[in-house]
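A reminder from the course coordinator: this example appears on the midterm review sheet, so study it carefully.

Given structure:
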């Protein structure tokens, strides 16, 4: 906002309530865990059912897969976040070395970055001089603008692991539920329907939190999930008990 520029209450309301910036940093974790849990467990359930497994066997396979899925997804989320943190630290240390040992080259990179954004002349000179006057600011700009990397804390890694694990567990239990109350013949199509509805809802939720078209996003997520599950069903049919 320019000095002295007036901002009306309606503009503030639009900015903070009607069209606010996305605050849900866990959105990708929820979708990752939930979708993976639904799809993988549904595939196992359909595969075991198609091979001739009874309700007890199908439920046992589903619950075992749900437990393993949740723990595995949480572990993967945690270790991948720590790996990203290691990459960030490594590149940041390298940038500090470059700033100390080859500052002219690093200064030229800063200039090239902001020149590509349309800055020229005295304005470009001031930007480069301001950024390169402080080594910490200099390195932070290079990490963001050149490497497109952001810091990842251990706390954030743990939170991501928890969100992914819980989402995977909840998603995994969705297709199992019908098999707890009905025969395989009745539960299998019901499980597919519930899973499809859940995937559609997850896709719609993702779209509502972003700028994606709601229907396209929902159908896309549902289709990907169901195709994967039915492939598992086909494999189960190959081993159907005679």
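Designed residues:
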């Amino acid at each position: 906002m320019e000095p002295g520029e007036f901002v009306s209450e309606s503009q503030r309301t639009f900015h903070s309530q009607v069209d606010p910036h996305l605050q849900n940093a866990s959105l990708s974790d929820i979708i990752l865990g939930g979708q993976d849990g639904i799809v993988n467990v549904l595939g196992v359930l359909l595969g075991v059912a198609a091979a001739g497994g009874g309700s007890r066997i199908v439920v046992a396979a589903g619950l075992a897969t749900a437990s393993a899925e949740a723990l595995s997804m949480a572990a993967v989320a945690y270790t991948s976040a720590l790996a990203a943190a290691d990459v960030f630290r490594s590149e940041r240390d390298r940038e500090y070395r470059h700033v100390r040992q080859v500052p002219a080259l690093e200064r030229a990179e800063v200039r090239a970055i902001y020149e590509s954004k349309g800055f020229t002349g005295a304005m470009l000179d001031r930007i480069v001089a301001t950024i390169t006057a402080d080594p910490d600011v200099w390195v932070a700009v290079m990490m963001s603008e050149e490497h497109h990397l952001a810091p990842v804390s251990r706390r954030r890694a743990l939170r991501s692991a928890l969100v992914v694990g819980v989402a995977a567990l909840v998603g995994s239990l969705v297709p199992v539920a019908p098999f707890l109350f009905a025969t395989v013949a009745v539960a299998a199509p019901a499980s597919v329907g519930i899973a499809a509805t859940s995937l559609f809802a997850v896709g719609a939720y993702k779209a509502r939190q972003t700028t994606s078209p709601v229907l396209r996003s929902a159908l896309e997520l549902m289709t990907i999930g169901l195709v994967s599950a039915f492939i598992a069903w086909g494999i189960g049919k190959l081993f159907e008990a005679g």
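Residues 27-237 form one domain. Residues 55-101 form the longest helix (47 residues).
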